[in-house]
Design goal:
2 strands; mainly alpha; two-stranded antiparallel ribbon; 7 helices; 251 residues
């Protein structure tokens, strides 16, 4: 019995959509799970907003709690002006959270374990900050690279570090989510596969010896559910913090 913890991240072509030049375009399992995440999020929000009741039902409670949670995070980190970006931040949070939770289901696919997906989301945030910051503030946007109260003799070094860190944001923003989901799923697959290997190779003795790895697998699974939510929140809150630079440069 072989154990391949990387196999779960393979991109599988489901059917061909078309062709551009010499490049074929396929609808993949990643595309299917992205559409699933959008569909589940839409159903939750539509179900929560349709027929509002004084005593909220399940869908309405989920919609209201999620809305207030994200709105409070935006107001707390970017002020009232940050609410203009609520649709973007809320959509990013729900997309990542739902896709992460779906990916925890056995034999499901986790789209945030693909660096191209997390990288695309991080670049979306980066260019939104850059374009809106320049549009709203003009050249004053570059005040984010010049912290106040810095002695003049170290200012060039600080400015270089600030510029360098600014352009590294998409990398750290995307790799954080990608690495956490990838590492957690690999660890879960390894421990779960170890339990199965013990049972197959050693029979009853192996299944008894697999109790401890099984308990650890259950604990890791519970932790993965928590990480799925936390990583969506971390990605969203970092988006708010970065957008705050576009709204209030130099603050």
């Amino acid at each position: 019995m072989t154990l391949d913890p990387i196999h779960q991240f393979n991109i599988v072509n489901l059917f061909k959509i078309g062709q551009i030049g010499g490049h074929e375009i396929y609808f993949t399992n990643a595309s299917a799970y992205m559409l699933l995440a959008v569909a589940v999020t839409s159903l939750l929000m539509i179900g929560g907003s349709a027929g509002k009741q004084l005593v909220p039902g399940r869908f309405q409670s989920i919609a209201e709690i999620t809305y207030e949670f994200i709105a409070a995070s935006i107001r707390g980190n970017a002020g009232a002006d940050g609410m203009k970006f609520f649709p973007l931040i809320f959509s990013i949070f729900m997309f990542i959270c739902v896709s992460n939770l779906v990916g925890v289901i056995p034999y499901a696919f986790t789209i945030s374990s693909q660096i191209v997906v997390t990288g695309a989301l991080a670049l979306l945030v980066f260019f939104t900050v850059l374009i809106y910051g320049l549009y709203k503030n003009g050249l004053k946007f570059f005040k984010i690279f010049v912290p106040s109260g810095i002695p003049i003799f170290v200012l060039p070094v600080v400015v270089f570090i600030e510029i360098f860190s600014f352009f590294l944001r998409p990398i750290s923003h995307s790799v954080r989510l990608f690495a956490n989901m990838l590492g957690g799923h690999i660890a879960l697959k390894v421990f779960a596969g170890f339990v199965a290997m013990l049972g197959v190779s050693l029979g009853a003795v192996g299944w008894i010896g697999g109790i401890a790895p099984l308990a650890l697998t259950v604990a890791i699974y519970a932790l993965e559910i928590l990480v799925a939510f936390l990583q969506a929140y971390v990605f969203a809150i970092l988006t708010v913090i970065y957008l705050n630079d576009a709204l209030h440069p130099g603050h």
